[in-house]
Amino acid sequence: MPAPLLPAYLQRIGYEGPVAPTVETLQGMHRAHFLHVPFENLDIQRGVPIVVDLDHNYDKIVTRGRGGFCLELTSLFAWALREIGFKVDILGGRVLAASGQLGEPLSHMALAVYLDEPWLADVGFGGRVAQPLRLSERGPQTSGASTYTVANDGDHWLVTCLDPWLALQAPRTYVLTLQPRELGEFAGVCHWLQTSPDSAFTRGDVVSLSTDHGRLSYSPGRLTIASGDTREEREVAPEGVGPALSEHFGIVL
After folding, report:
1. Contacts with 184 (C-beta within 8 Å, 6 or more apart), sequence order
2. Choosing from 30, 43, 108, 163, which is the catalytic residue?
3. Average pLDDT in the chain
4. Active-site residue, 108 included
5. Between 20 and 30 A from 77 (CA), which of 8, 32, 61, 242?
6. pTM for this model (two decimals)
7. C-alpha–C-alpha distance, residues 179 and 186, integer Å
8. Given the residues 30, 33, 122, 205, the one annotated as active site
9. What is the pLDDT of residue 228?
10. How many domains would you assign to the chain?
C-alpha cells in the first residue's frame, strides 16, 4: 500500500507523536493502538470472511473504524512500522490454553522489531500487551498494573501476560519462534480460526478494548467495565448490542 495511507492509519490508532524509526515512536504507536483499536471477532458470527490481506484490513480497521483479531491487527501494524522505516519480522506463535494445550501453528502473530536491541511488538493478543517488550530482558516488564515476562528455551520464546482485569483467570501465555514469516503463510490458519468448532473465535462475539485504568469487554449478552479496583457487569439485550458496541468501542456494524 502507498505511503500516503500512513497518516490516516496513525490518526486511526490515535498516535500524534514523532514519526521516525526510534524506540520512542515504537512505544508511542504501540500504546496508542492499545487504547484506540479494539480486539474483536464480530465478523465471524455474521458470516463476513476475515482474510489476511493488507488492503482489506486497512479498509476495515482504518476506513471503517473497526478492530480485528491478531492476524488483522498485527499485520497492519507491521506494515505501518515498515512504512516508517523500522526493520520488522512477522513471527508466528501458538497460544497456551489453561488446559496446557497449544493452539494451532501460526494461530497467533507477533512482531520482532530490530533497533539497537530487539523488541517484541504485539497489538493483537486480546488487547493485553500495553507496550513493546524487550526480548533480551528476563525479569518482569511492567506497564501500569500489568506485568509481562519473556522467557527463552532454545528456539522457543514464551511470553506471559498477567492482566489484573481478567478476573479469576490465570496469566495468559503464548509460544513463538523468531523465524520470519510471510503474510501468506497465515492464510490457512486464518480460515481455521473463523470456521473450526475447535476455535475459540467461533463460539461467540468477543470484543475488548483497554483504557488507561482498566478494560472494556463484550461477550454475548454481557458488557464488562473494569476500572481500577472496580468491575461492573451489565446485561445487554439483543436490541442493545449495536448501541453498546458503538458507545463503548466505537464500532458500527
Report:
1. 52
2. 108
3. 93
4. yes
5. 242
6. 0.95
7. 14
8. 122
9. 82
10. 1
Instruction: Determine the Cα angle at 242 with ends 69 and 95, to 5°.
Output: 20
What pLDDT shows up at residue 29?
98
pLDDT in tens, 134-161: 999 999 999 888 899 999 999 999 999 9
Residue at 135 is within a domain: yes
- Tell me how crowded residue 197 is: count the other CB atoms within 10 A of its CB: 6
Model pLDDT for residues 38-67, shown as the tens digit of each residue: 999 999 999 999 999 999 999 999 999 999
Block residue for cell numbers 467495565: 225
What domain range includes position 26?
3-202
User: DSSP class of residue 71?
Assistant: H
CATH number at residue 67: 3.30.2140.20
Cell numbers given for 85: 522505516
Separation of alpha carbons 59 and 56, rounded Å: 5
pLDDT tens for residues 159-170? Answer: 999 877 665 455
Strands laid side by side in the 141-143 sheet: 133-134, 118-121, 108-114, 87-96, 172-176, 156-162, 146-153, 141-143
DSSP 124: -
**17 in any annotated domain:** yes
How high is the pLDDT of residue 169?
Answer: 56
Given the residues 30, 33, 43, 70, select the one marked as catalytic. 70
* Contact predicate 143/220, CB 8 Å: no
- Cβ neighbors of 218 (< 8 A, separation 6 or more) are 205, 206, 207, 208, 224, 236, 244, 245, 248, 249
